[in-house]
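Revision sheet: structure tokens.
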Amino acid sequence: MNTFSVDGVASDTVGFGGASLFASGIPANTDEVAYTITIGPLSNADHGKTICLDSSWYEPTGVWKWAGPDATPSWDGPHCFTVVDEASDVVADGNGLPTSFSLSQNYPNPFNPTTNISFDLPKKSDVVLTIYNVTGQKVTEISDSYDAGSHTINWDASNNASGIYFYKLNAGDFTDTKKMMLIK
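Predicted:
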């Protein structure tokens, strides 16, 4: 694949990288005589601006077709694009992912026979939720890998006796235990 750059773009004209141009008659599934163009440089201030490409700009001369990512060649002349920023960093806005591990009090509590146990993970983690009866015997254990975010596990205690239970969450180096009460 041949690559070339178009520099010195006028200040009111902006572009994007990653378009591919194919010579007329060359199938889209071959990389013979395919060119990748880059028009730029771009900045965040370019978001929303439009540029137009004209097939007469490029060497060798002839009819060119444009093909974007996951697209087939589509034109024989000028084609216009709108510049869209690509996110390079993600910054929490207060409504995003949790910033720390936490285990919430189950709800409802007391419960009969089901309750929800919620927890927050700031990163993907292997989680083990263990439920113990009041004497310390393990009643159930749920383990799985979870993505960063807020999660809820519903525990059905239909086959358990009324009483106090403890639930413990292990996720990486984080461990926390809470108490809950089943009343039938």
